[in-house]
Amino acid sequence: MGYQLELRHFTYFLAVAEELHFRKAAERLFISQPGLSRQIKQMEEIMGAALFIRNKRNVTLTAAGVYLKKEIEFIFNHIDFTIRQTSLIDKGSEGEVRIGFLGSAMQTVIPDLLVKANHAYPDIQFSLEETTNHDQVEGILKDHLDIGFVRLDRVPEGIAKKTVHMDTFSLVLPQDHELDVASFQSIDQVAGENFILFSSDYSPLYYDKIMSICEDKGFHPKVTHKSVHAQTIFRLVENKLGVAIIPTSLQHGFDMNIKFIEIPAIRQQAILSVIWKKDNRNPALKMIQPFL
Predict the structure, then answer these.
(1) Domains of the chain, each with CATH number or no CATH
(2) CA 5 to CA 23: how far, in whole Å?
(3) Cα gap 136→230, rounded to integer Å
(4) ∠ CA(39), CA(45), CA(46), 5° rounding?
(5) CA-wise closest residue to 271 among 125, 121, 150
């Protein structure tokens, strides 16, 4: 008797691929473990490919399984998005654009983009998610996001990148710190202070640039705290736990007992780019691309 692949096969496969444990995947799917094992075996026979390596201790994906997991995640995400877009269009909307961003983008380019897009296409909806560079790239590759605002020097093949904002860097100090705009000359004046920085996981390129700003002045900063949120960094500075270096545009929108001093005469710039998948089929994205 011949069998055909059905949607359930892919659902079962993805559960096992994510859990890497047949019992846990079966509990998640509300089916028996032997039944799940039979379905996966049937799927492997139909495809003519081994998807898992099984032994008494663990379950791992084969190379074919790793590839299939990535593709199934994309397909399922795209199906979910297509269903949501269809519902929006039926209600009179022109669809939705999903935007990922770093915090500084909300202080610079995103408000302008939304104003222009809303004026030209008032029936397009937008969803916004503040997240890391890495998660934005993954989101675009897996069809979770349509565009992202990142600080990256390279992106994977198939993703387009365009510079949208060039920013300077500023030093963040407690309000009563002895340095001010008049007395500040160089970042080496705070070489002995503790530094509070964005995590390198949040933006490796940005983290490396901060390191190079200090190293160009002959010192390696003592980093005592890291965060992925500007507000957390500013709160730590406010409580005199250290100083920080941030893109200058991030200073707006916070009311704390801190001060900002733009760092003069340095070669580093905070470059913000917009990225999107070149073969993205979302018609709403194509409408707003002239504003990017």
Answers:
(1) 7-71 (1.10.10.10), 93-165+272-291 (3.40.190.10), 169-268 (3.40.190.10)
(2) 22
(3) 18
(4) 90
(5) 150
More confident residue, 102 or 97: 97
Of 97, 121, 122, residue with least CA distance to 110: 97
Confidence of residue 178 (pLDDT cuts 50, 70, 90): very high
Rounded Cα distance, 209 and 57, in Å: 44
pLDDT at residue 89, rounded to an integer: 86
**Paired tokens of 265:** 């005469």
Measured CA to CA, the distance from residue 105 to residue 290 in angstroms comes to: 18
pTM: 0.75
Q: d(Cα 92, Cα 85) in Å, to the nearest integer?
A: 11
Instruction: Tell me the per-residue pLDDT of 61-76, one tens digit each, with 9 for 90 and over.
Output: 999 999 999 999 989 9
Average pLDDT, rounded, for the chain: 92
pLDDT of residue 57: 81
Phi-psi sector, 95: left (phi>0), alpha (psi -120 to 50), beta: left
Residue 273 parent element (H or E): strand 270-277
The DSSP letter of residue 20 is: S
